Amino acid sequence: MCLYSMKNYIFAIIFISSLNLFSMEYDLDVITLPYDSLNIEDIVVSNFTILARSGNTIYKSTDDGTNWKIAFNSELKVNQLYSKDPHTILLVGEKGMVYRTMDYGETWLDESVEDKYDINMIAAKDYTNYLAIARNRWVYYKESLQSDWKTYDYYTNVHLSTLVNAEDKYYFGGGSNFRDYYYRNEHYFEFTMDVASFNGNTFKGFRIGYTWGDYDRVTKRNADSLRLYNLNDTLFASTVDYNDSYVTAGKGFEFNYEDYYDLFKIKNDVVIGLLNYSDSIYIFSRKGIVEIVTKSDLSRKGSNKESYDLKINFVNQINNPYSKVIYLSSNNSRIYKMSIYEPVSTIQVETNNLIKQYNNRLWVDNEVEIIGIYNYIGQKQNINRSSNNYLEFKQGIYYLSYKYRNNIYNHKIMVN
Amino acid sequence: MKIIVTIVFLFSNVLFCQDPQVLDSLTIKNTNTEWEQFADYSKSNITVNLGGVISDYDNKMLYKNGVTGLIIDKDNGNVIQTYILKVDTENSIDKRVEGNWDFSRTSLNKIFSFDINVDYSIKFTISSRLNNKIDTIFSHTMSYQYFKPINSPKANYDFYNIDDKKFIIIYDLLTDQGPVNSPEYLYYLVDTEKEIVSRIGRYSGYLLGSEYSNFIVRSNDFIFSTTHDNFNRGPYEDNDASDSHEYFNLVSDTLNLLNYYGNAGNLHNWFNVILNDSLSTIIVTDSIKVFNFRNKTVPKSYFLNAEDKVIAKYHFEDKNIIALIIKQADGDKRVFAFHYPSYKILLDKIDNAPYLGEMLGELNDGNLLTIGDASTLYKHKWQYDFNAALAEFEYKLIDDNKIEFGDLSEGPIKSWSWDFGDGASSQERNPNHQYASSGKYTVILTITNEYGKVHQTSKEIEAKGVLKSNFEFTLSQDGGDKRVECTNLSPDIAVRYIWNFGDGTYSNEKNPIHTYNFPGKYYISLTAFDSDGKYKIYLKDEIVEVVE
Asked: Is the pTM here over 0.80, yes or no?
């Protein structure tokens, strides 16, 4: 069924940071599905094939969002469309439903769990090994393609709503847990967001946002909406506390000790996805804000960060199929495709990326003084730095001489 | 950066003195037991509090519960004597009274009592009473360094003797460890002969101070089972952020943590039985779990209704059977029995017999002594027969001519013997067998139960080839694109295929040719289907790389 597509605009903004640690150029294409008012909850992207889930229906495009068709309409309630890779695309939902597709939604293979509890989420270690969570206690584990589902009873006090494979384990959790008790006639209170790990044999646990003590100290916590992420095989987590989001790579952060732990706070928004490019973490929010912070700055509350408003307003999920191309599922039947331009090369200046080449343009940090630019036969070139710190080059080979912290350096630049 | 607080706990100023005290308050009185006879049981005039610890001494049993101890004759179940300890709380502040005395493992006449006073040092005294002579056999003072107890002296403690010379002391208290006050509990081993006090364990969390605290000593192999509300075990992985059961053994004066089971739900401590050297049973919220504390697995869970409570256990050790008396929310008593080596349920039945309750032990005449309705002492014969043996099995073809067998037999089955029909055999419960060639075979399963009863069944099975998925591919350059030619190596039993090229495209051809024209790294998978719709997936571990 071919209706229409709308790549209606290209949105390109250049931001130059005052700190000059980051700058990001990107295009933002909007892909509108030809169906009314879809809230697109999950998307799976493999090159130009897109699967999008809204409710119990899977929509499919094979031309990067130009044409769409309904690939699957489930009679059972669907809770998640998941993809580890193009060979591991899974659909889970009520009554133990686990479906798998090997042909991008054309055929759905039934791998359902015999227990008929509603499955909240699934995650895979690879195409043979996956784990699903149901309600507040049931863990289903499929160790290999040949093995049957194993059922584990891991009772928790919260609805299990987040699951990820990272660090060779499965991690899962959900909402927050509050309890009080008496000890030697004194009343104590405790707040946690419990996270469990499963390595294929045993379960372990740890606590996110643990707070313990008297009433005033503990009951002011309001955290919920725990989300777990895998960034370069490292577990990250985010949670929402009084409308603010916290992102952490530390397994044991405590709200009262933010300064001690790898913890990054986003005001009045909900984190929905994280990406890791080199030493930077890209934090995507529900309101369509992208915050970029270096990993090392997480522990300093993101003192050096950049913020970009994509003007999307509502983001459900992100999908990063290749390079710096990110698909963002949204409401109003829309998917956004964000393409971040990458520097062709980076010139390392005292370990900071203070000079970056974008094809025929060079961005140079304020701290770097340009002494001269020469062509391949040594003739000085009259190329000036623009107000936004860019230098434009024609095709050719150039030699750049620059000064940084009283040292003079030379670098060869090739512009194709 | 995480702050790690390291606390060094040292003790010094070891003192030994001879200062008789404490046991002057122990009273012993003779008890007269009368029995009323009924058809299936006898009911006594003795009422007993639930939740104590039973121990065997020669031809007697000691049921110790708090400050009270009952000496029971194993010939007839009569309570002979009652011991009552009057605790002096003047000198020992806020002590855990029910735990501060114990009997010698060899003599009911030898009673040990333990007294503690926690201030900014811990002072304790162990006294004994043998043949009415009171003597302090050990006294010790530990002072703290780098370690400050909070709201001291409110520590809780408990005391267990291992033999006539060694004791374990356990206590918990709050400590000041920086950001928060941390509860922790400590184990000490006291060797009165060598005059040594050594700390053998220190853990975070409450043990004795919590509602469900428990500490069980299995003296014959020094395995200790503990249960506690693990309020503050810390946020770091490797700690289990939950209530937990912990299993220790004591080897060469060192307490080794064998394993623990943690769960975010409440653990109910009072049903905590070590079944053998690797299995225990525990109750978590609404499940009875068989827990293997050697490898930390839960091989079996039995579910209860959330409002049900297990009120008693009958452990038939020689038959490896556990029977539980469950008090349901509607007031009925339910008898639930399982055979724990095979995890087979043997009995699940409503039974409101008044004698069903906490079992104290088996008398010499075969009667069981229980604390039944109205906390009254009963004796009765076990009414149920577990001597069932019914052989049954299932099987599944898992590879070419390879069969997986699954035992479905009923009863407390102790051994399995398989005859695979091709001359081979196995004693495993659920064996796999590889047949040399395809064909039909008669498989015989013979089982023997815990009572020696034997039963046999046979089935004809067929060994044959199975569906598989397999392929090869060759790569070639097609201008700027990469061309892949796939060769399907799946057996003829496969009738339909899905090739997934990892780039958003697929093919249903048997031997497709595919061209990649977008840069990236790709894997190829083949899903092969047989005529029944069964399928096998194979992903080749070889990257197709397309560069710009």
From this structure: no
